[in-house]
Amino acid sequence: MLSVLIESRNQEAELAHTLSALVAGAVEGLVSDVIVLEHGVGEGVERVADAAGCRFMRSWDLPDVIRQSRGDWVLVLEPGARPLSGWVETVSEHIALENSPARFSRSKRHRRSLWQRLFSKRCPLEVGVLLPKSMALEKASAGGDSPFMLARRQMTRRLSCEIIPAWAMIRT
Q: Fewer CB near the terminus (10 Å): N or C of the chain?
């Protein structure tokens, strides 16, 4: 089973896109719970999370959030990022056979320009990160209350399925 963490900053539309891509995982029994961590003050994200059946938090302690998650694995995504078809089978296989962290492959159709790749800083969650719960808890306890910390300085295996990064939603 898999718990999904999404940290948001008043990103209702982006969150809705990400949650819609996770429905296949919930239907297949892979996604056990989705936890939305919100920094903003508006209620739009809370309404989207509630309508989708997600747990919603405005203040949190990341190690406690991970301890309370239902899954044995934690998937951290940006609002707006959408795993493409086949992700449920690929992640299920990885969870069954591996005990190491992983990331999705970058979508071949959604690539940054050469200029952006050379001169702009990438978000550590651009392609998500999938961690065993014990490793996520260890990294969260080491410092920081942001799920972004779980993705930094992390050696990962690249999964064969692709993800559309969150920045692609802004352009389209």
A: C
The two structure tokens encoding residue 77: 């995504």
Q: Which residue has 């809705």 as its token pair?
A: 16
113-161 per-position pLDDT tens digit: 666 666 666 667 888 999 999 999 998 888 777 777 787 777 789 999 9
Q: What is the CATH number of domain 2-171?
A: 3.90.550.10
Burial class (CB in 10 A: 0-12, 13-18, 19+), 148: middle
Q: What are the angstrom distances between the C-alpha of 56 and each of 5, 6, 155?
A: 10, 10, 29
Residue type, 114: L
Q: What is the 8-class DSSP label of residue 150?
A: H
Q: Looking at residues 51-70, what average pLDDT do you find?
A: 93
Q: Where are the beta strands (DSSP E) in 13-166?
A: 31-38, 55-57, 73-77, 82-83, 102-106, 129-132, 157-164
Looking at residue 84, what DSSP letter applies? P
- Candidates 65, 54, 31, 33; CA nearest to 145 is 65
Q: In the 8-state DSSP scheme, what is residue 110?
A: S
By C-alpha distance, which of 156, 140, 151, 154 is closest to 68?
A: 140
Which is nearest to 11 in space by CA: 35, 38, 30? 38
